[in-house]
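User: Can you fold this complex?
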Amino acid sequence: MKVVIFPPNSMILADLVERKGHEPLVMQSQIRKKVNTAEIDSPPLNITEKEPIEGLKYAAIEVPSGVRGRMALFGPLIDDADAAIIMEDAPFGFGCVGCARTNELCMFNIRQRNIPVLEVKYPTSSDETMELVNRINEFLDSLGEENG
Amino acid sequence: MSPTKNPHKEETPDTSKDETKIAETGCLIPQSEPADEDGKINRMIVIGPSANISNNELVRNLHMIEFPLTIKTTCYGAVISGEKEHVYEAIKRIRKLDPYNIFTKDRGFQPGDPRRCRAKRGGAREGFHQLEKEFELLDDVSKALKNPRKVKTKKLEKISPDEFKKIAEKCK
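Assistant: Here's the predicted assembly.
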């Protein structure tokens, strides 16, 4: 099953999903498409005016272009997902999740999809980390059962 | 010289709609051209703090697999780049060295890409701060993977209006 993770660039979440035989939908695959496109329109990262326009599928025109641009990358991942794991309160150092409004919109879109969702908090202690890993594994096992 | 038209072939304007490009708002949304699918992917291999192998051992083992991969040693482990099937197979074999302490992560940029490589930019690359944070948790993650425990994942359900009324009255 395709499992979208949030933060979409988390190593721990992606690794746990992969260990259980599912496919993690991660941000890096979207970025790879952007930065490796042969025709570089807007170096160095190839971000063009098309992204905020593509983001219109997920956010209204009044929404800042930065949010819409991010949604052009996050949105397709959410659309493809069969299940989701959301880890809230990730530290700000978590790369592309520095925009709080985009994060809210992403979580809203994931919840609106009516797919199995596991919501956890970013662990702050050893016990919480162990609990988090067990909960994620349990959730991923249950997905396999549902899928037959 | 102006181009001549074929008199036998009548040109008709293309009136067919591409449904995929029209958003719910009715706006025509141009889609970016997909990246060339060359099948190459990049993976970061991160060794946990309590791993039994070192970076050198990891890289030596990667070289011994003899797949056509680009391998770069890093402070956290290695970055490998190559054809999808080779990368996945290499990861599968490398994980066997220490299954609970080797973690992998997809990466967008190729190893040594001047847009990200710290050798060219100076200072840590953007993703490194996140990796640093996650590295702190890896010891506990590997312990949890070694000793799995049963936990109950509660499914959040909506409460009925009557129940909500009761709660509201209690809070008065």
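The first helix of chain A runs from residue 11 to 19. Helices of chain A lie at 11-19, 27-35, 50-54, 65-80, 100-112, 126-147.
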